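Fold it.
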Amino acid sequence: MTAILVIGLTIAMFMAMTKLHHRFPTPLLLPIVTTTIVSVLVLIYFKIPYDTYMIGGEWLQKMLGPAVVALAYPLYNQRALVKKYRTAILSSIVFAMMSGLISVSVLTFLMGLEKSWILTSLPKSLTTPVAMQVSESINGIPPLTAVLVMVAGFVGAIIGPLVIKYGKIESAIARGVSIGSASHGVGLSCLQDYGEKELSVGSLAMGLSAVVGAFICPIFVYFVF
């Protein structure tokens, strides 16, 4: 009963937040963001242990796999577009990965963080399972890396649409690659507001970023640190 109640309430909150976002279409009200915030507040207010919530939450978590696989459908529909711009997409992903590694290294160094924290921050733009493995391989702190991955996802989902709007970015390729390579699955949620092309390119960028990052990140650490 606990599992059923948790699943039902979570889905109900997400549907309510989706309607709110449709009525007030602003990045700050993205369902994935607002549902997370409301869920945390509910757990805190009613003093519900996280382990109790995860009795049902783990079933929702298990659906992440099929949900990610489902992204292949819009990608298949837009395969001609992806094939046409394959060079631009791949080169952009590599550039995004390198610029992310350099910027994170410089910023964390200027902040005076210890080397272990810097290494922990480097895989932040990769999807969680890959990021944690990469973090472990470069002597980072995998659990903290997972938290930073979530932060990068939420920041990208909220700030990304604003950058697209005020930067007047009209290209579906540019929109998809920028969000998908920087903010992985959480960021992809905001691309639904733009269309199937952006979502397709974004899902491809997310997958390729994980592959490219798994190779580039350790090499970058080897030569820089």
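The CA atoms of residues 4 and 56 lie 6 Å apart.
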